[in-house]
Amino acid sequence: MKTTIRAARGTELSCRSWPQEAALRMLHNNLDPEVAEHPEELVVYGGTGKAARDWNSFHAIGRTLQTLKDDETLLVQSGKPVGVLQTHEWAPRVLIANSNLVGDWATWDEFRRLEALGLTMYGQMTAGSWIYIGTQGILQGTYETFAAVADKRFDGSLAGTITLTGGLGGMGGAQPLAVAMAGGVAICVEVDRTRIQRRLETGYLDVEADSIDHALQLATSATGPLSIGLLGNCADVFPELLRRGAPIDVVTDQTSAHDPLAYVPSGFAPGDEWSVEQARESMARHVEAMVGFQDAGAEVFDYGNSLRAEAQLGGYERAFDYPGFVPAYIRPLFCEGRGPFRWAALSGEPADIAATDKAVLELFPEHESLHRWLKLAAEKVQFQGLPARICWLGQGERHLAGLKFNELVESGAVQAPIVIGRDHLDCGSVASPYRETEAMLDGSDAIADWPLLNAMVNVASGASWVSLHHGGGVGIGRSLHAGQVSVADGTELAAQKLERVLTNDPAMGVIRHVDAGYERAEEIAAERDVRVPMAAAGE
Amino acid sequence: MKTTIRAARGTELSCRSWPQEAALRMLHNNLDPEVAEHPEELVVYGGTGKAARDWNSFHAIGRTLQTLKDDETLLVQSGKPVGVLQTHEWAPRVLIANSNLVGDWATWDEFRRLEALGLTMYGQMTAGSWIYIGTQGILQGTYETFAAVADKRFDGSLAGTITLTGGLGGMGGAQPLAVAMAGGVAICVEVDRTRIQRRLETGYLDVEADSIDHALQLATSATGPLSIGLLGNCADVFPELLRRGAPIDVVTDQTSAHDPLAYVPSGFAPGDEWSVEQARESMARHVEAMVGFQDAGAEVFDYGNSLRAEAQLGGYERAFDYPGFVPAYIRPLFCEGRGPFRWAALSGEPADIAATDKAVLELFPEHESLHRWLKLAAEKVQFQGLPARICWLGQGERHLAGLKFNELVESGAVQAPIVIGRDHLDCGSVASPYRETEAMLDGSDAIADWPLLNAMVNVASGASWVSLHHGGGVGIGRSLHAGQVSVADGTELAAQKLERVLTNDPAMGVIRHVDAGYERAEEIAAERDVRVPMAAAGE
Ligand SMILES: NC(=O)c1ccc[n+]([C@@H]2O[C@H](COP(=O)([O-])OP(=O)(O)OC[C@H]3O[C@@H](n4cnc5c(N)ncnc54)[C@H](O)[C@@H]3O)[C@@H](O)[C@H]2O)c1
Ligand SMILES: NC(=O)c1ccc[n+]([C@@H]2O[C@H](COP(=O)([O-])OP(=O)(O)OC[C@H]3O[C@@H](n4cnc5c(N)ncnc54)[C@H](O)[C@@H]3O)[C@@H](O)[C@H]2O)c1
């Protein structure tokens, strides 16, 4: 199948109503060549994260959405449409469950066996739930993370520092721009030249170095923000830089380490075949170098791709010596219900995003880092597919933005409805002991009740589509996570739904962290009327 | 805490509306000493299946339900009330997630660690979801199973046959009565005398034998249905009966084998302490004898308690030589959306159940086995706690019963609302490769998208409370399953909700089996208008 997929623009509907139309356009948008890494294989991002199980399923989803009524619900099981049921107007139009396996069978072997039988697909987080918006999606989170690193270690700016990282794929490609936005220099090691090329073209990467020497020379002589691509394998380059005593201040990595068959081992090229053992052996060397940099005084953190776990399986014992980015930088934000709020303009008009940017700035005039981000984003971000924006908003903020967008649609200030969603990586939507729930205060890292409650809460609050996935960025057996997308179509019903969804969804994050004993979450719950039955009684 | 818990009866409400009141009464009913195995420890059935995490949680749930509004939703995380959110009238009043763990952490060790920290509880299926109705719940399923065994091997009746089984606990206690109802003789081996006593008192068991010899003598000289309790350990008694060449026709088991610390190993007594290894060693001997009976020509099946898997871990290689009861007898019913429909009378009046029995008989005049069951049940079943009934109904039947019950409430033909729910062991609500989804036609046994979709569908269809559990009857790491309970309070809104829930919930079973390639399910889908987008196209 070689057709190029691109979301329809404008106000003409091919479905009965906007929520169905929105699902259809966002499914298509996920496979827009500007957005997807391998659209011809239905792969959106993360190496294997797909939007639909196969092309027959893709077309059947489209056909079904086009006839789906306003009180009907389509069921999607790992990218395949399996049923249509009569529900009601407040119910989601689509319910999605992707890649889920029973615990004892939650292994890559079993997953691949089932995938080969055509019975499942890997949904990543926003690939199979139709709300991926290209590299911008992660750019903001990545920017927030590096800004937090700067706050913690370098007096609020990465100016004068060198960051070393790996991977310039769908997620990792945001790193060079994010580091530069935070004022620093980045050396980004990537084994696939086409990825380097792509980041240069989209302005996410400034220059490519010819060699390790060249990269170091560029980095140490830079007088301002600079991002440098370097063709090479992290398992070779990281140890070599360590050996040379290169002046690296910050180290992380976003190679596709969650899947040993996607991580390219030393000595191999993308497209080759290798074994899980070979990949793990390389990851062990890769992580060993990262621990070496930490021993030498650098700020080192895991960026949520399971690299440490795989390196440990590869025989390197100190793999977990450096922390994940969530406990290190993100958890305080989660306690406030803060997370990756994002939206897209179904009109296809960049002006609609400009209007929403302005509305958000006006809604939260005192929110400094938000203003800095939105200004930089408007300058630097090239839209991929439908124009979209992301910014982190918290409890008590998200629903205000949602209601405001709905007003903009109603009044005609934007040209078509706005789709509002988020990553599954959010404050109360995920159980992932190597990432979002690593090192919880009460030890509840592995408890998976929360994403299940989150999905049910979003279904019960009026989201337009809701998804429950397994694996995501950290791989099979390592996470469960939920997502919601809601459509601001300017109607009164949409306003009521948005108010509930965008209040309750982040509230799950506040509640989850109150339950785990975080004081900041308790403060927020008290301040913003999040009701936690046993919090007051002191349990 | 020593207070005796018992559900309120009658029409006086302590909550704002019937759905909340129903949740409260059913929570209490689960802990009624007539219903629960160890109410003082909040344990309802299955050895460790609890209704609430601890007494503080129990009381907080009660308090919260008593003030919960008709557009609010209470969240329960492993038996603890963690939040109250504003939703809407069509949303469930309670959302429950119990015992769920991320795949790689889905082990008994991790579960017990978290349980000891007070962070989780074991919810079994209907314990933590507040719709256990005592031994009758399983009696009907057990009766259907033995009737199916009779159909398959013994010309439709167990008359003249001897069935050997183990375990007379909450679930297993139904076996003697079910075998007798199907015309046969049962020898039931139980290591705890108090359990034998209890089954004698409630009329589920006819006599107790003093010894193996006595049991055999009673069994072989019986001239009609007879159930015999025998104090002993299955790991000793089963091999001994095999050695003696006892004339056993059917063999199964319902000891608490899902949890090696609940299964009593040979040489130990209930209440002793033993190791996982000791339990598995005994289970290996227990299963070895069962395989021996099969080799000798008996009909042998696993009754959904993970005994085979544990015996295999205990070193016995042929453990999976005999099938689970689902592929052997139950799957054809699942293809029709058939499963354990159950209801309880909130009035507390047995007359209300008599009225509903009559209504069901009138609704389905041609359904022979249903008539036989309801007649036997009315005679033999002693109510435990609130009067309740169970019968297996399928796609196209359940909603008719629900709507009829709602009419009975509206017209005053019954004295108070009727609560309608089901076991999690149902046609489309569970992924459990050792039980409900063992040996699926397409190999999709371990795919867990289905219970998650089922829960979301029930939330989206108007159920009063919805639950998502892990572990159930087969143990941690081995299953995911969902449940719903809906309240027929005689209102028009309840009728609309019941119609959707009781159509969509069993439809998930039809859809799941269509997707797996079962022809019977395709026929039912065509006959009863279950819409499966890719079925018609032949995929
Ligand atoms: N931190 C987060 O918030 C987050 C979110 C989602 C996903 N992830 C995880 O981050 C990782 C990256 O995601 P992505 O979407 O960019 O994946 P991707 O597959 O699009 O990109 C991975 C890149 O790593 C490169 N690579 C692989 N092995 C390499 C090696 N040994 N040396 C150098 N380069 C190598 C590949 O060529 C590819 O370009 C994944 O594991 C993903 O699951 C993290
Ligand atoms: N088939 C189904 O549909 C279904 C449904 C739910 C649960 N189950 C499973 O069935 C099993 C029984 O459930 P239950 O609620 O009756 O559990 P229970 O704990 O109430 O009863 C188990 C009984 O087995 C006895 N026992 C334990 N070890 C023994 C041994 N070695 N020899 C003889 N007796 C022994 C115990 O004394 C106890 O009375 C559990 O594993 C449960 O998970 C099956």
UniProtKB/TrEMBL annotation, chains A, B:
An example molecular function term from Gene Ontology annotations: urocanate hydratase activity
Domain Urocanase C-terminal stretches: 332-526
Pfam family, one: Urocanase_C
Top-level taxon of the source organism: Bacteria
Residues at the active site: C391
PANTHER family: UROCANATE HYDRATASE
Family under the similarity heading: Belongs to the urocanase family.
Protein name: Urocanate hydratase
UniProt organism field: Solirubrobacter pauli
Gene: hutU
